[in-house]
Amino acid sequence: MKGSNFLVVLAQTITVVFDKTGTLTKWVFWVTKVVPQGSILPNEVLRWATYTEYRSNHPIAQSILEASHQESLLEPDACEEVTGFGVIATIQGKHVVVGNDRMLHREKIPCDQCEVEGTVVHVAVNGSCLRYLLISDELKEDAPMAIQGLRAEGVQRIGMFTGDREAVVRALAKKLDFYAADLLSEEKVEQLEHVLQESDGPVAFVGDGLNDAPVIARADVGIGMGPWARMRLLRVRMWWS
Ligand code: ADP
Ligand code: MG
After folding, report:
1. Is 85 strand, coil or helix?
2. Packed helices 42-53 and 59-68: angle between N→C axes, nearest 10 degrees
3. Smallest CA separation from ligand 1 atom 8, residue
4. Residues with Cβ within 5 Å of ion ligand 2?
5. Is 98 exposed, middle or buried (0-12, 13-18, 19+ CB in 10 A)?
């Protein structure tokens, strides 16, 4: 589709898929709990997480920076953001890993407290886990209204894709027709291929454009809503293919 055609396609859309984090849920999170390992102080866990997330734009990173109230922030000497996993950094010669269960498994870091309920960010320094931060991730107040509005406009199927864990999103997904969790960016594209095949009409994908650009680009109508957008304004920026 090119040019002004996308408006016609948007009007005919019968399937809408949302990205979760920052799109269906609030863009602004906060750290609700810091759980340290043994005698480690909570502040130490938070401090390493803050230094590591220093350059990340992910909303999780923003919430950690907010929570830390650090006067003097240490910039990492090197850092790598691994989409859907977290961040790996070198800080003062230490190898720091901050991210989800998947990240700990990827980096082969032993952890005796995986599968914690909620959106969890583990912090590990030089291969040992200092434990984790718990992050709030709540549905936007106007999300149910937007979903209702879409149904009233003739959208038949509404779903959600997320890189977050199945256990965290199960309750949230109850109002939706389908969902898929634990997805990496390329797996979101694979899931969308199935949805495109099954849908009898155009499929729209709504994301934040942060790490879901490939799936936004693959949909018949791709909609990117940044933190500046309100849920009911589903037209901030559009890509079409
Ligand atoms: P969604 O698919 O719901 O939009 P994302 O793909 O943005 O979620 O992230 C998926 C998961 O990857 C998050 O729930 C988190 O566990 C982890 N993650 C991603 N980026 C970061 C980061 N900067 N710091 C810590 N964890 C992260
Ligand atoms: Mg996202």
Report:
1. coil
2. 130
3. 163
4. 19, 21
5. buried
Pocket test for ligand 1, best of 24, 27, 58, 115 (most atoms within 8 A of CB): 58
d(CA 216, CA 220): 9
CB-based contact 28:140 (threshold 8 Å): no
Instruction: At 105, list the tokens.
Output: 């498994």
CA atoms of 196 and 182, how far apart (whole Å): 20
19 is catalytic: yes
- 168-182 pLDDT, tens digit per residue, is 888 888 889 999 999
**How many residues would you count in the chain?**
241
- For residue 133, list its beta bridge partners: 34, 121
Q: For 48-60, what is each residue's pLDDT tens digit?
A: 999 999 999 888 9
State the catalytic residue, choosing from 19, 101, 208, 220. 19
**Smallest-distance ligand from the CA of 161:** 1
User: How many angstroms is it from 100 CA to the middle of ligand 1?
Assistant: 8
Out of 54, 160, 164, give the residue to mutate to test ligand 1, the one with the largest number of ligand atoms within 8 Å of its CB.
Answer: 164
Tell me the average pLDDT across 110-116. 72
13, 219 contact by CB (below 8 A): no
User: What distances in angstroms separate CA 239 from CA 101, 221, 224, one per listed residue?
Assistant: 33, 7, 8
Give the Å distance between the CA of 86 and the centre of ligand 1. Answer: 6
